[in-house]
Amino acid sequence: MDTHVFASLAQIRVLLVPIGSISQQTFEKYASEIRTFDAIRLGDIAVEGTKDERARFQPKPLSTGYLHLSFPSHPPPHSHKALSLIRPSHFPLAIIGVATCSHSEALPDIVSQFNGAVLDMFPPSGMYPLARNCFVFEEGSSSGISPSGQQTELTIFPEMMGNRKLHIGTLLGEICSQIFGEFGVLIQRLESPIGNEYLNASLLPVLPLLTDMP
To answer: Which residue intervals define the domain Trs120/TRAPPC9 N-terminal in the entry (predicted)?
Structure first.
């Protein structure tokens, strides 16, 4: 956490990571575009149409105020996993991969590398990230690229897209909505009888595994 950022504990941390063969210069170019969205209006967040626990923390229609974001590029060390419940502000609640691509045949490799990067940074049994997406920026394609139906974790940005910044803002709103929804599921697990047992079991409690839930 950057101690010089005012109210940094209240920011939603979204981890940005390079995927594939993207150069550092190109990654920083696209990451800087994403980082321009340091706040999103609550009224612009796409609320999931659900009535279950995922709706618990979703903003109400026409809500005022803002959700403040920060975009680190380094994950917390694995040794900090024990703090995940008592200090969620220390962890990225979402992860966005940043990649470039020039032909559709490379997309499966990007998906594999993105999923591998997530597993390297976050243990499978961990709580975070609550949302993930890989932004693939088209570069040097002559015919355009598009993901298959199985590649839902990818979002393609065509090279000639004229409203890219608007699209990025919309996607960040959707990611924030996913975070709110998954946070509701997480809290429901903690409020269950077995969740209370886990909370009272140690000084650094952990979230009960889904396999332990009734």
So the answer is: 9-191
